[in-house]
Amino acid sequence: MTDYDETGVRCTMLRAGTSRGLYFEPADLPADPAERDELLLRLMGTPDPRQIDGLGGATSLTSKVAIVGPSASPDADIDYLFLQLGVADATVSDRQNCGNILAGVGPFAVERGLVPAGTAETSVRIRMVNSGGLAVATFPTPGGRVEYRGEVAISGVPGTAAPVTLAFTGTEGSATGRLLPTGSVRDVLDGTPITCVDNGMPVVVAAAEAFGLTGAETHAELAADAALLERVDAFRRKAGALMGLGDAGDSSVPKTVLVSPPRDGGQVGTRSFIPVQPHTSIGVLAAVSVVTGLLLPGSVGHELTAGWPPGSRVDVEHPSGHVLVDVVVDVAADPPRALRSGVVRTARKLFDGVAFPRA
Questions:
Q1: What is the sign of the dihedral through the CA atoms of 112, 113, 117 and 121?
Q2: Number of neighbouring beta carbons within 10 Å of residue 246
Q3: How far is Cα 97 from Cα 129, in angstroms, rounded to an integer?
Q4: Contacts of 225 (CB under 8 A, 6+ apart)
């Protein structure tokens, strides 16, 4: 077993969407998953709530890994495996996708020569190994080089950057096998109406008011409410069992998303938990799944769609701003089918070089 203490590991760090992650090619990591995970934990500085001796940023949003290599699938150019690393706990999970980290996968693939760059823009077909779903990332490559500078702003990220447009197919039932994992548009859990939906991310949707919230609470207020977080944890564990995910105690899914009327010019307010601590914004695929669920008649929060203007683009409010998602659902089908989903993100390369793990 190689410890990599002397040689280090070839690594690129990107800020992708509202997350930050370490990107690797498979050949630069151990082939054995247990050895690989042990190395990644040492690189990230886990377990330690501060991750002071590693590259993590002491939050789940900055403790993420993408492993990107050529794909054997005729429908994809590259394969992307996402791993969520714990912070205080030495955990590595492959049970979910990450749409934010996905935003950096295409640029990384071009930077490493895995996909040739176009002269103006490049589209990369990505197989999301975690779920088998496909995504196409399109981003500017003037002169055959990835351009990170641009004028697109996304909430939760300072400044602006070049757009990365993500279009999804095959994400329906990503982890559970069904768009509606329980087989119903609406269920009741502990007396609380819920909608369980999986269009790229398994989420349990409930009304904020059912948890004694207005939906306007700040991230800090949610994080300081120990009783709320305890209830969210118990709630999502039971929801996970309903969704066929088994014991969700040590799992990063399902996510809990509480919805409410919009307050800042958007179309729906959200407060998301990942899976227990509140999210400073909302994950890309969680937002896609929530909007998919809201569009289904009879679902929790469907009444919020009554005033939505025509079109497929939905403005989702979250604690640090807004995210626009594009979702089209065939509600006449039995069961309902997700026809299209997409979102615009940005990414920026932070460093490319050699990372050295904790001994």
A1: negative
A2: 9
A3: 8
A4: none
